[in-house]
Amino acid sequence: MTAIGIGPEARRRLSARRTAEIVAEELRRQILDGELADGDLLPRQDILVDRFRVSLVSLREALRILETEGLVSVRRGNRGGAVVHAPAKSSAAYMLGLVLQSDSVPLTDLGLALQELEPSCAALAAQSPDRATTLIPELNKINALAEEHLDDASRFTEIGRQFHHAIAGGCGNHTMAVVMGSLEALWTSHERQWAEQSAAEGGYPSLAERRAVLASHVKLTQAIEAGDAERARRLASRHVSNTQAYVVADAPDQRIQALPAQVIQRRRR
After folding, report:
1. 262 CB contacts (<8 Å, ≥6 apart)?
2. What distance in Å separates the CA atoms of residue 154 and residue 83, rounded to the nearest whole number?
């Protein structure tokens, strides 16, 4: 019976893989601990090879691991290099999206989760002691910006998503903010596709409907400012349900599609 094992070439690849994981782990630690800041450019690959005392193959594999995680983006060419990205909700959204896409989960399932969670965020935001100096000015600024762009479909949609992201981020509970931020990022990618297609086909909500959306945002802002948690919860619940209906109306059976973290980040810039 032939002995079961691996040959020298396979052993070499496994060794390189383990080395790459060790390098990736150390770079990941430095990013998470803030030693490498968002936007930093990593040293050239030949310098990193020397510092870590590894092969170029192992280093490049380490960078690929981090790139998949959304922690770096590698630019090729003469002006290439690896740019550091702090952990983002969009990265978590991508991994979550992959799981949901593999299970063929409908977009309405994600919508229902948001209908349950976002009103809770709004209620928590209304109870936040520093909302008057942090969240409310941000929401008022977003609402004013939305009013300026009522005639621009794609811009209005983008500003509307900023409103929802702000409420999630201002709920006062960090875990909820991260979870909601991930779900919002995943929903945003689908809503943006809907907005672009609807605008191109002339089916984007009318000016009157856009004004109604803005009015809902203003009322919700006022409820949060007043500290009325239950009113904020009710308004958010009704608003989320109503706005989601636009996105799924023409394709109620559409499935969740994951977008790479780097794509979501670029689209939000």
Report:
1. 70, 73
2. 29
Angle at which helices 207-226 and 135-148 cross, to 10°: 170
At a CB cut-off of 8 Å and minimum separation 6, what does 202 contact? none
Q: In angstroms, how far is CA 263 from the centroid of its own chain?
A: 10
Q: Which residues contact 137 (CB under 8 A, 6 or more apart)?
A: none
CA neighbor of 199 nearest in space, from 260, 164, 252, 155: 155
What is the three-state SS of 191-219?
HHHHHHHHHHHCCCCCHHHHHHHHHHHHH
Residue 258 binned pLDDT confidence (cut-offs 50, 70, 90): confident
CA–CA dist 123, 234 (Å, integer): 9
Task: Tell me the H-state helices in the chain.
Answer: 8-32, 45-52, 56-68, 89-102, 107-126, 135-148, 153-169, 174-201, 207-226, 229-248, 261-268
Contact between 45 and 56 under an 8 Å Cβ cutoff? The reply is yes
Task: Render pLDDT for 53-89 as a digit per residue (tens, 0 to 9).
Answer: 999 999 999 999 999 888 999 877 655 689 998 887 6
